[in-house]
Amino acid sequence: MSATTTDVETARAAALAFATTLPSPVPLELVDAAGAGMPAPDAASVRVGFVGATSADLVAVAGEAVAQAIAGAAGLTLADAVRPALEAAGRTLGTGVLDDAVEAPVADVLLTEDVRTFALVDTLGTAVAWFGLRIRPQVPEVPKQRQGDDEEAPAPTIVRGADYGLRLLHDVEMTLTAEIGRTKLPVRQVLDLVPGTILELDRAAGAPADVVVNGRLVARGEVVVIDEDYGIRITEIVAETA
Question: Which of 45, 146, 191, 225 has a CA-to-CA distance to 127 between 20 and 30 Å?
Fold first, then answer.
């Protein structure tokens, strides 16, 4: 069944909010994907569900568009980078809750008949990101998303500043882990571990602990105690190697 006018307008509003918030350093324009082409089936996508007055499934393919933002923030994943844009898209649907994002190859998800797909193109007209939205079946009396004008107007060009992408991600929460050392054991010895076993780590006593973000080393510091809780005093920022 083809999408209704309301679904198309709702999807376009969500796509525009997504495009406006996506941390891309270059100007982007929202266009219909039919004329811009589709991503390769193995392209990484971020998928998330929205449950609310208008429930929907959202799909984003934006690895190329946010590559610079990811490179500028150690440990940031594709899902982290596009999460604020997906949240902005979700807010156009009204009150609701956005599920946890899942990364997976896009395959043919954006080609599904009930998914309304838009492309985000740069100043050369090259598609660098895609956004798809599928409206889930709704109960009667769901309020229509307001668009301002009744007619669908051309999407405006979105201007980015040089540091726009990274600033948009300032409120994204990331998990930091402190490691005082590591060791390797064969499975046999791991299965033999009992209370009281002492493991020798690859770090000398008093050596700084590693501060890791999503598996990437970003800093080192010394272990301190703050009100009976452990803490880390940063002593070195680890520069990213090429």
Answer: 146
